[in-house]
Amino acid sequence: MIAEPTLLSRSVQKENSVVDVSSCASVHHVSSERNENRQKTVRGKRKARECSENAKRKHSKSSNGSLGRAENEQLKNGDVEAVTLFEVVSMGRNAMQAVVDDWIDAYTGDRDSALLDLISFFIQCSGCKGMVTAEMFQSKKGTDVMSKMVEDLDEDTGLQYKKFLAFPWILTVTWPLDMDSGEYPLIMSGLYWKRFRSHFCEFVSVLVAQCQNCVIFDGYLLNTLISLLTELSDSRVRAFRHTCTLAAVKLLSALVNVALNLSVSVDNSQRLYEVELAKMASKRASPRLDRIQRKISELQDRKCEIENMMDAIFKGVFLKRYRDVIPEIRAICMEELTVWMKLYSSVFLNDSYLKYVGWMMHDKQPDVRLKCVLGLQALYQDQSSSKMDLFTIRFKERMISMTLDKDHEVAIQAMRLLMVISQSCEDVLSPDDHKNVFQFVYCSHRPLATTAGEFLYNRLLSNHELSKPRDGASDQERHRELVLARVRALIHFHTENELHQHVLYLVDSLWDSAGALLKDWTGLTSLLLPHTSCQEQALSSAEEAFVIELILASVRQAAEGPPLSGRGAGKKVINTKEKKLQIDDCTKLTEHFIKVLPELLSKYSEDAEKLASLLKIPQYFQTDTCDHENSQCVRALLAELEAAVDRHTDAGLLEAAARSYQSLCAQDLPWHSLARPSFDRLIQHWTDTLGTRLGESLSDGCFTANEDSTLEFLSTLKKLNAFNVAQDLSKWSLYELGTRLLDVEIKHSGLPMEVTIEALRCMCSCILWKLNTFGEGLTSRESALQQRSQLRAFCEKCHRCLSHAEQLVREQAFMCLSDVLIAHNYQLQMWDSSAGTPLLYTPDPKLQKALLSFVVEHVFTSPEQDTHSSKVSESECGDGRLEDLHRRRNLLAAYCKLIVHSVLEMSMATELFKQYVKFYNDFGDIIKETLNRTRQMDKMESARTLVQCLQQLYLRLKQEQDRGNTCSSRVQTYSSIKELARRFSLTFGWDQIKSRESLAMIHRDGIEFVFKGFVQQSEKHSPPYISYLTILSEFSSKLLKPDKKTIYSYLQKFAGEQVINNREESWMPLIYYRASLMGTAEGEDAISFISSDTNKQPSLSNRSRSPSVRQVNSEGDQRFLSPSLEPKGNELLKSSEDSKVQQAPLSREQLSSSLVSDKVLRSSDEVDVDTVDIDG
């Protein structure tokens, strides 16, 4: 009997030195029956404390004990004394070699006892808290042995047991039922148990290594061990299966090393034999030849024996467990299989074994697929691809498709696998395969993109054919030719795939592998500047544009670093080394481009697109390294900047120039004294020009400029607006100039549309700058009033522009209003009370209504197109449709921001929510996000908005039906309103506790809306709005069961028992709604009576089609009217039968006082209340 192993205890029990030999028949022949085993099992816990460990039985001598040297080493270091192999291996330390040596000594003295110690070790490592009994198997016939090999549950004792043959013993392992709880050492969390796994694997390897020259070939040790591991790895218990499978494959790996050593010994002996045989006959020693030949035969026999053992483990364990239901076991098998292939390729590296790796690359678990890919990487790197040709051809498509794996790590390693295959097997991947794989440089996951970038660099940019120098060329020319060849290869790749137009993502993917090329700004800029010796290699205009984009992207990457937008969840925190490298790169690019950039700007002064890219480079200059030595270069750069903005009016170019001026004019920059005066002169020149032209163009308050003056006036205004966005230009009185222009348009009209738009932008930028700087110092009441008057005047002007004849003017006025109102609201939220009086402004109701009307008219248009899928719309309407959709989405997003930031009341979102289903393909994401944000602000008010939305749509449909207009396209159908309610209910999510008050309020308002003015005694007809209950039923599924009963009780107070039991056709919506509350199948019958697209009452002829309804009526409908049968019924519902139909409906106050609100957030399964406060 093996003592009960305690996983967490490493202390020594002194009383275990005395052994009850009769408790374990390790040597004696015992013929025990199952009853005897049961008795031993029942006494297992008690016996475990009284009997000793097998390793200590009769061999607890200090000189040759099985754990003697290991214990001595542990005790010398002051560690706790260990008793069992399990405890010693768990401690780890440096005693593994001593543990194995002690065990070998014990095995040499008494192999049965030592072997049982080893068996106990594997049982304990499986987390088994039971015991092991053994009986000798001496019968050669074995007629009934296999019938006894069972694994079952003893119902009498509640213990599980497994009986199996581990020759020469029949072992019985008994353990308690709770072992299936899933806790065993290999899967336990914590650093201690992680180390235990490595110690466990190391023990198996060291054991075989130390025994390879002695007891491993005795025909006893490994045979018993392999039988044990094979049987336990086939157990139904996960702990046995997992632990023993790991031990078995590690044992096979150790045997592979033994076989390799034997192969080396055979080769050495064979060479020695050949050398001895090559000697002359007179000098040849025949006895020596015989000894060598016998040694060779002995080594070959041992090698054959080891291979037979390996084959037994492979067939007995691997073939059964490589498709185990537990993914950890499958991963272990795949990992070790590739190790065997790499170490012992002569036996394992063939198609018979490779097929298992290919099959398991389709495994559902990413860990298993990852082990397969990592193993294949090692095999292809080991120059063994010639033996894998058939495997490569068979599974090439699968390896390529794994780059699209949903697990990022598997996809990355699959990309590395293809990289290794491409290097070792030139012809395996076709050009199309390379093209498809290289496109991953544009994917959103950066690690995968950088791996694809490394593949691209190794395949295309580091090709030896690109680096062939020209005869007689200097080092500088050779370097330039190499850079040119690599850049042209990159250009060819970028233009060939036509997949992505942003060079920035390509540079980010290549940054880690091709950083030397991308940071070679001297070589890259030399391609753009004139070079007398290489005129035949001049770049085309398109190639020059790509090189400029490449330079700009590399400058940005060096200055800011990853991640880019769309790559990475947030800003990467860089360490000190990376920060120093970034500073060095910025210093180098600043020193280089401060000298070269003026020349480049002069060369491309007529090309606005290239010029815009070059003008962005000064934004990334390192200001800390600037000095006065480059003053002449700075002056040249400022001159080229001024010339560029004077010559061009392109919006992108002006924005880039404004940002560059902002960087150069920084206060802490040594160049500030040069850049700031140049900037002021430029702005002053434009302001004077604009004022002069405006004075010339106004005559009697009308704009009378000719075409040339208007173009000059417009270009100057665009430049000022672009620079006003980057820097505050308030001291040049731009707001007053914009006011004069808008006054002309409002009073007399006639102002060109583009001038009106630029005037609105100018005034908006000035207002935003004033709002930004308003609270910086102490604010007086007079300044606050002045700012508020200015803000009100601007809003009034924009309000008038909302009715302008030109649509672009209307849209610009709307966007300006949105930006200003949101900025003002943000200023109020961040206002510091110590700064004085805040600037208070609230848009008047007319302006709010005008904003809503604008959105309805300009955003929710063309409903016929929006009802189709977005893909169909794109294919039919093309780029124009997409541009229009983008514009409308921006307008809607601006209006939603006004609601989310509490500038407008939440009820103003009603019109937006009405269009949720109708325009779902185009604006569904924006409306849904707005709905979620408003719910976070005030969930009750948000729910009221939804109720108001549905009721307004329903009333409008009712009115149109009363008028007979049933085909109006402006009115949503009944089915669409019901679908809208269903979509609203889905937005509440799965957390029913969080939204129970909101949902209860929706039902309460809906019931009051339907039964408003309904008197139970006098009314014989159904309420006019009763069909609204079908719409309301869409929210019933989100209610908790106690809340459903509460709502049902509230419904009874309004409708009464007689009305609820009414089976007339006009009351079918009520039946359907009641069924949704009670959770029964009656609603499936009632729904057939409710029209999908009309609100009219169904005809009586339909009643014959629903026999189930008549059956329910005949049964008295007790299942709906007996809520007291519920185990936790509401008191209100229990007394519902006592409250007669004569009772008046409860008011909101009465309902609120009768219901209890549960504010504790618990899961729906733990809710122990039956009521909810449905009063808002």
Describe the protein in words.
With 1176 residues, this protein is mainly alpha-helical. Helices cover 61% and strands 3% of the residues. It is built from 50 helices and 6 strands. Strand 2 (151-154) and strand 3 (159-166) form a beta hairpin.
Describe the structure concisely.
The chain is mainly alpha-helical and 1176 residues long. 61% of the residues lie in helices and 3% in strands. Strand 5 and strand 6 form a beta hairpin.
Helix segment count?
50
As a percent range, the share of helical residues equals 55-70%
Q: Major β-sheet, in short? A: 4 strands, antiparallel
Looking at the structure, what is the overall shape? flat
- For the terminal residues, how far apart are their CA atoms? 70 Å
Strand line-up of the largest beta sheet: 1-4-3-2
Mean pLDDT: 78
Number of E-state strands = 6
Strand content: under 5%
Structural class: mainly alpha
Poorly predicted runs of 5 or more residues? 1-82, 137-149, 863-876, 1080-1176
What is the gyration radius calculated from CA atoms?
A: 42 Å
Topology, pairings included?
Blueprint: H1 34-42, H2 44-50, H3 68-76, H4 85-91, H5 96-109, H6 111-125, E1 131-136, H7 145-148, E2 151-154, E3 159-166, E4 169-176, H8 191-211, H9 221-232, H10 238-278, H11 286-321, H12 327-343, H13 345-348, H14 351-360, H15 366-381, H16 389-401, H17 408-424, H18 431-438, H19 446-461, H20 475-497, H21 503-510, H22 515-518, H23 521-526, H24 541-560, H25 576-603, H26 608-614, H27 631-647, H28 651-664, H29 672-697, E5 698-699, E6 702-703, H30 707-726, H31 734-748, H32 753-773, H33 781-801, H34 807-829, H35 845-858, H36 863-866, H37 870-900, H38 910-914, H39 920-937, H40 939-963, H41 974-986, H42 996-1010, H43 1028-1032, H44 1041-1055, H45 1057-1060, H46 1068-1078, H47 1082-1086, H48 1107-1114, H49 1131-1134, H50 1148-1154
Antiparallel strand pairs: 1-4, 2-3, 3-4, 5-6
Helix pairs in contact: 3-5, 5-6, 5-8, 8-10, 9-10, 9-11, 10-11, 10-12, 12-14, 12-15, 14-16, 15-17, 17-19, 19-21, 21-24, 24-25, 24-26, 25-27, 26-28, 27-29, 28-30, 29-30, 30-32, 31-32, 31-33, 32-33, 32-34, 33-34, 34-37, 35-37, 37-39, 39-40, 40-41, 40-42, 42-44
